[in-house]
Automatic annotation (TrEMBL):
UniProt keyword Glycosyltransferase, yes or no: no
Coiled coil ranges: none
PANTHER family: GLUTAMYL-TRNA(GLN) AMIDOTRANSFERASE SUBUNIT C, MITOCHONDRIAL (PTHR15004)
Superkingdom of origin organism: Bacteria
Subunit field text: Heterotrimer of A, B and C subunits.
UniProt-recorded name of the protein: Aspartyl/glutamyl-tRNA(Asn/Gln) amidotransferase subunit C
EC number annotated for this UniProt entry: 6.3.5.-
Catalytic activity: L-glutamyl-tRNA(Gln) + L-glutamine + ATP + H2O = L-glutaminyl-tRNA(Gln) + L-glutamate + ADP + phosphate + H(+); L-aspartyl-tRNA(Asn) + L-glutamine + ATP + H2O = L-asparaginyl-tRNA(Asn) + L-glutamate + ADP + phosphate + 2 H(+)
Keywords: ATP-binding, Ligase, Nucleotide-binding, Protein biosynthesis
Similarity section: Belongs to the GatC family.
ATP-binding in keyword set: yes
Top-level EC class: ligase
Amino acid sequence: MSLDTATVRRVASLARIRVEEDELPRLQSELNGILGWIEQLQAVNTDGVEPMAGGGTQALRLREDRVTDGGIQQQVLANAPDAGPEGAAVFFSVPKVVE
């Protein structure tokens, strides 16, 4: 497959890339080179070759689906500039936004 200048201009427009007219031939050449490599890869016979990663018969290990607070409440609140008074309910204190 070979791209013409009009197609390269359209691809650049769709990608929202400004390409000057004098740059079009160079970009056309680069894109045609990339498409050539893709054609070579598609020509490789992969019948009987199992995928190395992803898909296939591999299954993800599952963990129990449960809700927790993370167990690090004090570490999280240590980042707060004001976490409320000692002994009170633990929360982030933020400035009033609406008057």
